[in-house]
Amino acid sequence: MRLRVKLPKSKCMWGFFWVLMLYLPLPALADVEQAFVALHQKDYPSAYKLFLESAQAGNAEAEYNLGVLIHEGQGTEKDETQALSWIEKAAVQGWADAQYYLGNLYEFGQIVPQSFQNAALWYQKAAEQGNASAQTNLAVLYANGQGVNQDIVLAYVWSNLAASQGIVEALQNRETVAAEMSPEMLKRVRAVSKEYFQKYVAPFQSQQSLRPGGMRSLPPPEQQ
Q1: Within 10 A of 73 (CB to CB), how many other CB atoms are there?
Q2: Global pTM value
Q3: Which of 64, 107, 132, 212 could form a disulfide with 98 if both were Cys (CB 3.0 to 4.6 A apart)?
Q4: Which alpha helices (H) appear in 18-95, and where do they start and end?
Q5: What is the pLDDT along the chain (224 residues), one digit of tens a residue?
Q6: Rg of the Cα trace of the chain?
């Protein structure tokens, strides 16, 4: 069974992002807003400076975006060790984009040694917060038995959740997995999928919001 992973683009993407309520000083939050404006204008040095100020105050979203800028060498000198440190801090704080990014790094062996087990761990954390890209890639790991025990039920379920959020690769993967199932099994799996949807998609849909100009956190680079 050949499934497709969700590969992030190397350029900035603008769209929806998940809001995490953080109890931080108002100046730190203001810096993040200003950083996104600078990012939208492709003023990377200013975005770097503003994200750095907020990251040093403990803002997980700023930590993540700062790490991505450093990883890409945008607005500052590229430093993979420092980039990883900031991304890990954001992931540990529970920022879903950072968890997905970290899983992506482990899956493809960028900055860190390749580890499907660690990739699955971080994808799982992000997937449970409604991150559709993480759900897509986690499903592939379950289908292939990489880093987790092979489980076509969970491969279908996570693909289905991501597909419900508009991920084309997940829709294709779901149909590939479904073709391996009997009608009876597919009926049971769809029931499980509904339960997962209520836990790992529905609670987060109401939390979607837009940054100024429709901006979102930076994505991981596209893998070769």
Answers
A1: 13
A2: 0.83
A3: 64
A4: 26-40, 44-56, 60-72, 80-92
A5: 656 655 554 333 222 222 333 334 455 667 899 999 999 999 999 999 999 999 999 999 999 999 999 999 999 999 999 999 999 999 999 999 999 999 999 999 999 999 999 999 999 999 999 999 999 999 999 999 999 999 999 999 999 999 999 999 999 999 999 999 999 999 999 999 999 999 999 999 866 544 443 344 555 555 53
A6: 18
